[in-house]
Fold each of these.
Amino acid sequence: MEVVIKQDYEQMSKAAAEIVSEVLNTKPNAVLGMATGSTPLGLYQELVRLHKEEELDLSRVTTFNLDEYVGLPVNHPQSYHYFMHEHFFKHVNIPLHNINIPSGTTSNYPAFCQWYEERITECGGIDLQILGIGSDGHIAFNEPTSSLSSRTRLKTLSEQTIDDNARFFERREDVPVYAITMGVGTILESRKLLLVASGKSKAPAIAQAVEGPVTSMITASAIQLHRDATVFVDEEAAAELTMRDYYDFIYNAKPAAPKS
Ligand code: PGA
């Protein structure tokens, strides 16, 4: 795992966007896994800027979002459908039919979840999965004790996640209790993982995910099992990492590895 510590949110977002744009330069028809939440907003803004000002082309990209609240229609301002269109999709040139977001209003959740998994496979799998992290250590809505082999399914949100997300709703009671989410197993099958975290509220979860044991209590720790995972954090989110000098040395000095 590579850990990249940037001074602030803006620099972290730009560095993470650079990874996405490198993937797209190498593979213009890449399949991208998208995340919602406040953290990836800066990354999306930078991708929009690269698209508008530096000709980053997304016309052959396919996307799969990680999760969606159950019960919110696509036009609900707090639905992840709405979020993605407002903050990203309407500003870039990804064809609408290439955009996949779990349905929060399907009549048959098990069938939909299975279809979503099959659709990912049909599209060749996810090349790069963008991830945030919850203060309870979740990735997507894989709350503590989620199986590390889980697939797309319904999940009950933890009290901590409901508290964290209540800021976006008028009342805490309005936060949906269920979500449909890709599983940890689904996420680990992506060819590359890019996790972004910012702010001091994320420092304990980041330390546990990066340096703690792999445990379903902190589902983000499962990224330790992945061969190509990069964690981008700002100074505040990095505050509880014990190996930060080592991460900085690797990233900044880029010591040349022996050739044979
Ligand atoms: P946030 O959410 O970026 O809004 O903090 C992250 C997450 O819950 O995955």
Amino acid sequence: MKIDILTLFPNIFEGAFQESIIKRAQEENNVEINIINFRDYSKDPHNKVDDTPYGGGQGMVLMCQPIFDCIKSIKTKDSIVIMLTPDGIPYKQKMAYELSSKKHLILLCGHYEGFDDRIRSICDMEISIGDYVLTGGEIPAMVLVDSIVRLIPGVIKEESHLDDSFGNNYLLDYPTYTKPRVYEGLEVPEILISGDHKKIEEYRKEASLKKTQERRPDLLDK
Ligand code: ADE
């Protein structure tokens, strides 16, 4: 998979993809990630990328020209263009699964008061990572990359994400423990030390269900 991230602030991404699983996924050629500054596509003599809004109002609005030209120059028939915006569709694990099988994602990060609305016409999807407003789409783009890349076949073992919260069964993950058995008086549930795999599986299913009922009863409606 190739992921191109279009941004005015490439430095924000420094480090974010240079650690752990995402770093290894790039080294092993499971994914290629490119950070592209769409200011480089501006035809304005001063490399301008934004202007004041028609009709008046606060702030600056990202202009069509640099973004249209940038997307047109990198887009192929396999590309999915995704705008990161607080008014997009709410991002869910199911979307991460769907996007993990695509060949080429183009993630468009905004800043300032938003995009000229006509830019939406060259995007295939608009995604929001939650009901809050960030200063730009860069952190949402990192969220998408991280959640999608770990699902690309070969990046982590499939068993490691089959039981994920919000995965196939819409249940939150069961609690896990490691050594020591007792820490500051806090004990690991007896059943996990029993060696009885059938009982452990039942315990985990029940614990998952209980946690979901307590914390996210809305998920059980699905
Ligand atoms: N840009 C600013 N806030 C955002 C959000 N919540 N999701 C996606 N893009 C954004």
